[in-house]
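Reviewer 2 asked us to include a model.

Predict the structure of this chain.
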Amino acid sequence: MLTPVKIYFSGLKPDPLYFKPKFKPEGALMIALKQLAQDLHMKPEELQKQGIETFLRHKLKMIESELFLLAKKYGIKDVFEFDKMVKEGKFHERDAFEDYFKFDNLEAERDLILKHLEKI
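Predicted model (structure tokens):
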């Protein structure tokens, strides 16, 4: 939480000390991480690694379920097949426009997550 700030209309910038936060969130987060790791009898780095991996795997499942629903809706496997079917006139471009870009973005996000999971 920030301390109250006086607003100046003279064109001068307010003193930066008015924007000094009461606590440092990253400091509090690190203390909580260390305490939790200690309570779980593990190293903070391992807890952090497992937390990131779990988050990425959960996000990947959400993305894959959305991709599955879109693929089922249009009877396709990937964005290239989607593009091909639009070009062939099987779907009207204006009707499938939003889903096409959503499908493309979800595939890109899935690939990025898989790339990061390989590094862990």
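The longest helix spans residues 44-74. Residues 43-119 form one domain. We have added this to the supplementary material.
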